Amino acid sequence: MKTENFTKLISLLLLLVFSGGLKAQTEFAPVGAEWYYNYNNFWNVGYVKITSESDTIIDNVFCKKLVKSIHVYDYVSYNEKKGVFGYEYLTQINDSVMIYSDGEFKKLYDFSAEIGDTLLIPGLGHYEEFTHGTAVVTGKGFMEFEGESLRYIDLKHLEDTPWQFSCYHNYDNGYNTARICEKIGNISGYLLPEKYFIVDDDEGGALRCYSEGELSLKFTDEECDYVPESVPFPYTPFPTENAQWSVNNEKYALHGDTIINEKKYSKVYKQTADEAFEFDIDKAEYFCAIRNDVENKRVYGVYKDNLEVYNHYNEVIEETESLLYDFSLDLGDTIEVANFDEADRAGYIQYVKYVRVESIGIYKFDGSHSYVTLYDTDSIFSLNNGEQRKRILLNGIHESLQQSWIEGIGSSDGPFVHAHFSGLEYMPKRLLCYNENDECLYKQSSFDYDEDDDCFTNYYPNDVVENNENDIMIYPNPATTNVEVSYTLPEGMTSATLVMTNTLGVNVMTAQLDGNNKTTLSLEELPSGIYFYTIRCGENVKTGKLVKRN
């Protein structure tokens, strides 16, 4: 009888604890709780959702199962992507929250910590080289949540913490800080110490919403599950002044305005020389006029001479201005654009037809006049000053024409080159440099064959080097088993870190790039698909896309 009464007493106490009859410690991540976080990296925008799905048992320990899912808009492919991308397991021991990682439970947060105490934040086993980050408690107190008083601790990551583990996104003198609250976790950044994505914390931090039954916290004016329906990446129109393009032995520059058919245009002048030179407007000749149609993301031009214009089918067409670029193209869209280059030699203006594609082979002449193919991929492109521009790739229809277009700059072959002119002694033209307001924003030094820093070439190369835009090359691309990462580290730097994610933003590879300027990475364990890489060296960040094929 005593045993039966004791059992009933224990059952009653447990019932009182879980029904609120007795004051129990605050439960972290109660079942049914949901977190929504901003997701904003170079190609995607939307949200990550974490749900405390159920109670479960791991290694005989009572845990909460957290389900991680993603819903984003990809503004490179113009598609929505969503789905579950991982799970985590948490348990609570008194004032400590523990997370299951690498086959054991590790302390994640400790609400009994005092100011000045340090915590080792685990790396969850998602990064091979980094096992933890160090944080110091800088403050503690209470906050009200729907009538409930919850403890919090303020943490600051110390200098030795790898950026990959940064779940804290309020920056303080270069180091990350965060407020960790009972029940909810990190209210100023991501819940867990992993960096699957870059959050947008300009307004309110990474956390959009937290909900638990009828209780909710909201840090955004948008709906918690808001995903944009259009491209958020800002369009950059062509410049209207103070811009210069270097193409082989030619330089183009904007100089003044003009009115044609009651529309305002920027005038373009061209200068050609047999040896390296600085552009001189007094030695240049008027070439064409260009104008932006910003609303439709198009660029139009009027050639200097009134020549006949032929469409892609070699039919004469009548027009008052020619279409040079259309940056609104979706993947698979086709477009006809006018080729102003060599119009004088041909005696007419020819339209060329392109289709927007996901990856292309970039062609370069070698010393024997044969072609060498190097792969490139559609991406967000980082200029020399760190500014990001959208870049699209195009293949010619029924012709061996391939080029990339960068918003505000033009094609990789030059701003007015949309064809490799046939039937003439001709060296393919390449955009060597683009300068705006006396600043070099773009340089393809691999095509500057004399290797001088003059953005000039007027002869066929004797040797071919891989395309090293932005001083970073990953090739071959697409790849099957291995890739070579070739790079030039900024002066004073001895290493860089490469992080590769899949299309859901999940980290699939982290690698250290040392000062040897070339590293081989194995892709054998990765399934075929599209991957995004970020290479970080100090304040320098380079990004790109890699295609893995079977």
What do you see in this structure?
- This protein folds into three domains: 27-218; 243-466, no CATH class; 468-550, Immunoglobulin-like.
- The chain is elongated and about 85 Å long.
- The chain is built from two helices and 39 strands.
- The protein has an eight-stranded antiparallel beta sheet, with no helix packed on it. It has an eight-stranded antiparallel beta sheet with strand order 22-19-18-17-16-15-31-32, with no helix packed on it. Strands 20, 21, 23, 24, 27, 28, 29 and 30 form an eight-stranded mixed beta sheet that branches.
- The model is unreliable at 1-24, 125-130, 161-175, 195-204, 365-373, 422-426 and 460-470 (pLDDT under 50).
- The longest helix has 18 residues, at 2-19.
- The N and C termini lie far apart (70 Å).
- It is mainly beta.
- Helix content is 4%, strand content 50%.
Write the layout of secondary structure elements.
Elements: H1 2-19, E1 34-40, E2 44-58, E3 61-74, E4 79-93, E5 96-101, E6 104-110, E7 118-122, E8 132-145, E9 148-157, E10 170-172, E11 175-181, E12 185-186, E13 207-212, E14 215-218, E15 243-247, E16 250-260, E17 263-272, E18 285-293, E19 298-303, E20 308-310, E21 316-317, E22 322-326, E23 334-339, H2 343-346, E24 348-357, E25 359-365, E26 371-377, E27 379-382, E28 388-396, E29 402-406, E30 410-411, E31 431-436, E32 439-443, E33 472-475, E34 482-487, E35 496-501, E36 507-513, E37 518-522, E38 529-537, E39 540-548
